[in-house]
Amino acid sequence: MLENRRFLLKRRPEGEPVPADFDLVSEPVPEAPAGGFVVRNYFASLDPAQRGWMDDVPSYMPPIALGDAVRATTVGRVHTSDNADFKPGDWVMGLNALEDYSPVMPGGFTSAIDVSLVDSPSRFLSAMGAVGLTAYFGLLEVAKPQEGETLLVSGAAGAVGSVVGQIGKIKGCRTIGIAGGQDKCRKLTERYGYDVAIDYKGKDVDTLAEEIRAAAPDGVNMIFENVGGDVMDAELMNLAKHARIVLCGLISEYNAPEKLGVRNLWQVLAQEATIHGYLISAYVDRFAEGGAQMAEWMAAGKVVMDEDIQEGLENAYPAFMRLFSGANTGKLVLKIAE
Ligand SMILES: NC(=O)c1ccc[n+]([C@@H]2O[C@H](COP(=O)([O-])OP(=O)(O)OC[C@H]3O[C@@H](n4cnc5c(N)ncnc54)[C@H](OP(=O)(O)O)[C@@H]3O)[C@@H](O)[C@H]2O)c1
């Protein structure tokens, strides 16, 4: 008999999640809801945002309820269906959960996908999915890069950051990436085309600020912020006049029991800069347009996106934690089924 393994949120993490916050259970495969279908999940996206969804605080989405499977974007195939538009065997993506089978009511983020366009369906969780498009729309629509400008990116070797840098180069910008460790910094310049790579590990705010200044003596015109905390404080000391800051993520704070906040905010005022809080969900109706451009750039070899595929629902916890140790090398994806 088929089983539905589900990775549940048992209690809300305090600071860094620990294994006891979760439970892996086995339940019967659900029935297709009236007008909907059941998807057999093959790949699930592991994202820093899931950490935020585990907290019971006001956000752009309700928190994951205790006892529910951890919410995740997945790609998979329709298993059973009560909807003529989604037939068994069709490939789909949507906001589901870390589980073998998810009941789905079409609408919202659920869409059919054409896996013949890609070498692996997981691409719809990376370059062709919300993560690649987070880089695309955040840079092009929010930062609006102009040729010759300087773009500074934190979390630059990660899924979003690596693509931001490459699109910045396509648009004729000088790109500076900040990442953790020598290997990632080498990758920034050798694989993702960054002009300058800066390793933030083990450096205080002043040292990091000086290194950014050496790379951009006239200041940076754009910051694509993925990290926050000390890294952002160092960046803020290097703003050019009227700089634009895309506030995409603050991963250094997601597991921090006490949010310290950014201390050099006065630089935003001094340089008449703009901070724009940015969510990819604002661009869902333009995904087809962005996806087509990303596919073209990838086919032309102008954009690469690495995937870090971890195997098995039973490994969901250690796989998820790779995001916070920095162990992930590219878009972190959990493979649930062959
Ligand atoms: N606004 C939106 O709509 C949206 C959508 C998607 C993602 N995001 C945000 O974008 C950011 C990147 O997400 P991603 O999916 O591309 O993940 P990712 O960058 O592939 O992986 C996370 C990386 O963050 C770095 N990191 C982890 N803890 C850190 C800390 N305490 N200080 C500094 N760096 C730390 C690590 O890289 P190092 O080894 O370099 O430290 C790690 O590899 C996140 O902040 C996420 O929340 C926002």
Can you describe this structure in just a few lines?
This protein has helices at 49-53, 130-143, 159-170, 182-190, 205-215, 229-236, 251-254, 266-270, 287-299, 316-325; strands spanning 3-9, 22-28, 37-45, 71-81, 91-97, 101-104, 111-112, 150-154, 174-179, 196-199, 220-225, 239-247, 274-277, 307-311, 331-335. It is an alpha/beta fold and 338 residues long. The site of NADP nicotinamide-adenine-dinucleotide phosphate has 28 residues, from helix 2, helix 3, helix 7 and helix 10.
Explain this structure to me?
The chain is of the alpha/beta class. The chain folds into two domains: 3-126 and 305-335, Quinone Oxidoreductase, Chain A, domain 1, CATH 3.90.180; 130-281, NAD(P)-binding Rossmann-like Domain (Rossmann fold), CATH 3.40.50. Helices cover 27% and strands 27% of the residues. Strands 3, 4, 5, 6, 7, 14 and 15 form a seven-stranded mixed β-sheet that branches. A six-stranded parallel β-sheet has the order 10-9-8-11-12-13, sandwiched between helices. Strands 1-2 form a two-stranded antiparallel ribbon. The longest helix has 14 residues, at 130-143. The model has no long low-confidence stretch (mean pLDDT 96). NADP nicotinamide-adenine-dinucleotide phosphate binds next to helix 2, helix 3, helix 7 and helix 10. NADP nicotinamide-adenine-dinucleotide phosphate (NAP) is lined by residues 47-49, 131, 134, 155, 157-161, 179-180, 184, 226-227, 231, 248-249, 251-252, 278-280, 323-324, 326, 328.
